[in-house]
């Protein structure tokens, strides 16, 4: 009998405790929903799909998390399929915005986009993601080296094979360079990083970056003729650089770690990579002409001699319609793009993904475009 | 009793019916899956086989594009088999004929554990541990045996070479090969073994006379199973190998012929149009190679079986 009363008492207490919990939760929910209603005038709801460059995947992750925290009713999906696939999907009407390592090609501007209204209406694009590509090396006791673009091109085309080569020594007086073979590491998969790196070499070192007697141009896939060692994706390159002594490679600057880095010859000085120096390249580069005013496509001035500019950068564009067929999607794109472009959004991505915030000037120009999206 | 002497009709039980149908469905299911994969590969590869196909400068024609990768696939797998086969036979013999019961059981479990490690882990281990560990050996081989073309050339500074890939693949196929060979060796008729011993054979002679001839078809089919896994291995190769689209017999350089599977993995995510079809066409090629090798293996085993004394 005593046992039964004990059990009954226990049941009573637990019921009390459980209901107490439930009451608490309801109260919390009410206060949070009240708070969001007061902070944003319009409550956004819905799903926004985008895809594109994998280079800015870490940035998009940060932005999506930040944006969804401010707008709990919205789900943003960014699928890092690669730039080419991203633009294709936008063209097919599967997505509403694209992240791309290159701007729209002229024929892509001319093709209709089913999600825009009208389908052949204007699109927008502007750089949203700028990230320095560091040329990094693994040499014991050496943290930084100066190299002209021609020297870097010589190393990566297999013409310079020793670390104590005269071309390297000439720019690094006082550094004890070892008599060691250079292993140049490149990406074995196709990537925008390789595309931007080779674009820089083809413009800044046209006389050394030569394949079969001609300028090799910008290449997404590394040609076998240049030799060197391949690594799968950024992490593979990093692993390869770490595994050998006397290795040199290129990768997103956020991954430098303990490796030594190359200060790149620009004009008469050598510029080490930094977010600010990387963001500057956009400001000194001209916008491509003969395109709609809503497309800020830059012809990156990679062979600039401007002081303090780091020319080895990867820039990715945000692309979408100026007028969406579905007004609800237009609202979402506008809100999401404005968030990415906001000072906090840029700061947030930079903290989480290690990219360079875009310059204030570019930010204002891009915001002016986004304001017209409807 | 009017039906005396008439045929007794076998009674069909429900269980029998259900089981036989289920088994048939499972068997036919395999054929359907295989056909579906083959059809998918063929249809998706068709655009690349069109002479007008545009590979945007990444390839000239399908044959010259796929040749280095076919070579790399076969080369890496043959190296792996050359390393794994003697090891697998040794392990199987040790477990079946030398180790005591308890220990051989533990060893068996450990071999099975090796088979459960995902290939991406083998790849990471290969690139982060094995490659740097082997590199001094490679340098030594190159210095002292560099006159052999296999060891010639500029040695990779990171050890991510064809030989490392061969070794990683060998370790990956080892468990399945050793397990299969062990099972075959265990089935050697006791009478054969005892007869050999009774004639005064040492244990090694007994193994040579009784166990190995009996197990030969098992060894061959285990090699084919191992080869099948090595041919299609993707992740470990993509991670470990420093690839290039060339044909290169040298084992120790940075410029290694990539394998078909790893090449697809590296290039598919950013590919489009006819080039994507070309990658799938190379997958079709791998499919055909694997099929040919398996048919060859079946043929060898069926011929050998008559002489092996296994029947």
Which key features would you list for this structure?
heterodimer; A: 374 residues; D-Maltodextrin-Binding Protein, domain 2; 2 domains; two-stranded antiparallel sheet; B: mainly alpha; MetI-like fold; two-stranded parallel ribbon
Model description:
- The complex is a heterodimer of chains A (374) and B (311).
- With 374 residues, chain A is an alpha/beta fold.
- Chain A contains 12 helices and 13 strands.
- Chain A has 2 domains: 8-131 and 286-299 and 314-370, D-Maltodextrin-Binding Protein, domain 2; 133-280, Periplasmic binding protein-like II (D-Maltodextrin-Binding Protein, domain 2), CATH 3.40.190.10.
- In chain A, a hairpin with a 2-residue loop joins strand 7 and strand 8.
- The longest helix of chain A has 38 residues, at 2-39.
- Chain A starts with a helix and ends with a helix.
- The model of chain A is unreliable at 10-40 (pLDDT under 50).
- By secondary structure, chain B is mainly alpha-helical.
- Chain B has one domain: MetI-like (MetI-like fold).
- Chain B is 74% helix and 1% strand.
- Chain B has helices at 14-49, 62-98, 101-116, 119-145, 162-186, 190-198, 203-232, 235-240, 260-267, 273-307, and strands at residues 243-244, 256-257.
- A two-stranded parallel ribbon of chain B has the order 1-2.
- The A-B interface holds A 54, 81-85, 88, 181, 183, 185, 188-191, 220-221, 224, 227-232, 236, 239-240, 243-247 and B 58, 127-128, 131-132, 135, 154, 156-160, 238-239, 241-246, 254-255, 258, 266-267, 269-272.
């Amino acid at each position: 009998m005593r046992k039964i009363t004990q059990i009954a008492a226990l049941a009573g207490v637990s019921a009390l405790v459980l209901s107490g919990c439930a009451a608490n939760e309801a109260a919390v929910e009410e206060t949070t929903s009240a708070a969001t209603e007061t902070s944003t005038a319009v409550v956004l709801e819905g799903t926004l799909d985008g895809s594109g460059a994998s280079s800015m995947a870490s940035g998009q992750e940060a932005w999506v998390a930040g944006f969804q925290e401010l707008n709990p009713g919205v789900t943003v999906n960014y699928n890092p399929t690669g730039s080419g696939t991203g633009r294709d999907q936008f063209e097919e009407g599967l997505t509403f915005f694209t992240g791309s390592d290159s701007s729209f090609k002229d024929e892509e501007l001319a093709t209709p986009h089913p999600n825009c209204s009208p389908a052949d209406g204007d699109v927008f694009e502007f750089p949203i993601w700028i990230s320095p590509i560091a040329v990094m090396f693994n040499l014991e006791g050496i943290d930084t080296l100066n190299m002209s673009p021609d020297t870097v091109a010589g190393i990566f085309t297999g013409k310079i094979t020793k670390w104590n080569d005269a071309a390297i020594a000439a720019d690094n007086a006082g550094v004890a360079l070892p008599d060691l073979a250079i292993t140049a590491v490149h990406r074995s998969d196709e990537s925008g990083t390789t595309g931007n790196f080779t674009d820089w070499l083809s413009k800044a070192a046209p006389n050394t970056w030569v394949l079969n007697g001609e300028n090799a141009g910008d290449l997404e896939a590394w040609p076998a003729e240049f030799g060197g060692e391949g690594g799968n994706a950024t992490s593979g390159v990093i692993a390869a650089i770490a595994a050998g002594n006397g290795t040199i490679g290129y990768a997103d600057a956020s991954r430098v770690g303990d490796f030594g880095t190359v200060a790149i010859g620009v004009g008469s000085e050598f510029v080490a990579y930094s977010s600010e120096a990387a963001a500057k390249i956009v400001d000194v580069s001209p916008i491509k002409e003969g395109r709609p005013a809503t497309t800020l496509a830059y012809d990156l001035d990679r062979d600039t001699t401007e002081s303090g500019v780091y020319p080895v950068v990867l820039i990715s564009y945000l692309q979408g319609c100026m007028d969406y067929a579905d007004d609800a999607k237009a609202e979402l794109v506008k809100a999401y793009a404005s968030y990415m472009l906001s000072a906090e959004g840029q700061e947030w991505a930079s903290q989480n993904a290690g990219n360079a915030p875009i310059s204030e000037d570019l930010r204002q120009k891009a915001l002016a475009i986004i304001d017209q999206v409807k | 009793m009017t039906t005396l002497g008439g045929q007794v009709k076998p009674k069909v039980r429900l269980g029998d019916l259900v089981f036989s149908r289920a088994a048939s469905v499972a068997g036919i299911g395999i054929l359907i899956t295989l056909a579906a994969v083959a059809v998918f590969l063929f249809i998706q590869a068709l655009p690349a086989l069109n002479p007008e196909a545009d590979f945007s400068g990444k390839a000239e024609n399908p044959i010259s594009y796929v040749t280095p990768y076919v070579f790399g696939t076969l080369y890496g797998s043959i190296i792996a088999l050359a390393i794994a086969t003697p090891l697998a036979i040794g392990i199987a013999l040790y477990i079946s004929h030398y180790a005591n019961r308890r220990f051989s059981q533990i060893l068996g479990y450990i071999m099975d554990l090796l088979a459960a490690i995902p290939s991406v882990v083998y790849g990471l281990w290969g690139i982060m541990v094995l490659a740097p560990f082997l590199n001094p050996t490679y340098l030594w081989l190159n210095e002292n045996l560099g006159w052999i073309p296999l060891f010639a050339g500029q040695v990779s500074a990171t050890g991510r070479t064809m030989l490392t890939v061969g070794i990683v693949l060998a370790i990956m196929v080892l468990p399945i090969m050793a397990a299969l060979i062990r099972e075959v060796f265990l089935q050697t008729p006791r009478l054969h073994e005892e007869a050999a011993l009774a004639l005064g054979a040492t244990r090694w002679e007994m193994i040579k006379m009784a166990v190995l001839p009996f197990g030969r078809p098992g060894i061959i089919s285990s090699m084919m199973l191992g080869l099948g896994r090595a041919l299609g291995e993707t992740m470990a190769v993509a991670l470990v190998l420093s690839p290039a689209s060339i044909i290169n017999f040298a084992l120790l350089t940075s410029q290694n012929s990539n394998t078909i599977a790893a090449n697809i993995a590296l290039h598919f995510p950013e590919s489009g149009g006819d080039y994507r079809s070309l990658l799938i066409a190379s997958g079709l090629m791998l499919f055909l190679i694997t099929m040919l090798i398996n048919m060859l293996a079946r043929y060898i085993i069926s011929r050998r079986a008559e002489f092996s004394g296994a029947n």
